[in-house]
Design brief:
By secondary structure, this protein is mostly beta strands. It is built from one helix and nine strands, in the order αβββββββββ.
């Protein structure tokens, strides 16, 4: 079977187009979430807050520092991505909590409008061992 030059050319164009498409597609954000050691309860992260500071970056990952009250805000927009969670003590030492799935739960995003007014986009989740309520 003889390969035509036009088939080779077309194949080359398709490979280059695919490489360009996948190479230029938007990368997902990677977040590092720092939670105060010993904190349990709901965490709320507000995005697009004009008076808040932008996120800082560490090794190309956006760092979100949660306050002792479980709230934080940033002027940055929320982007789809992955999360790494750490407890952080008063000295800045981090404890990775990635491998304890029961610690972080009920993760969800909220946004939309209420009474014609845009609500800020937020991420909320719970920190602490999820306890089940006994059924009656």
């Amino acid at each position: 079977m003889k390969i035509k030059k036009s088939d080779v050319f077309l194949g080359t164009i398709l490979i280059l187009a695919a490489a360009l498409f996948f190479g230029c597609s938007q990368e997902r954000e990677q977040y590092i979430v720092l939670i105060p050691q010993g904190y349990t309860g709901q965490v709320t992260i507000l995005f697009d807050q004009p008076d808040a500071a932008p996120l800082t970056y560490e090794n190309n990952k956006a760092v979100i520092s949660v306050s002792n009250t479980g709230h934080t805000a940033t002027s940055d927009a929320n982007r789809s991505g992955t999360f790494e969670y750490y407890f952080v003590d008063v000295h800045g030492q981090r404890e990775d909590i990635q491998n304890i799935p029961e610690i972080i739960h009920n993760l969800h995003t909220q946004s939309g409008t209420e009474n014609g007014k845009a609500l800020p986009e937020m991420i909320e989740f719970e920190v602490g061992i999820e306890t089940s309520v006994p059924s009656s």
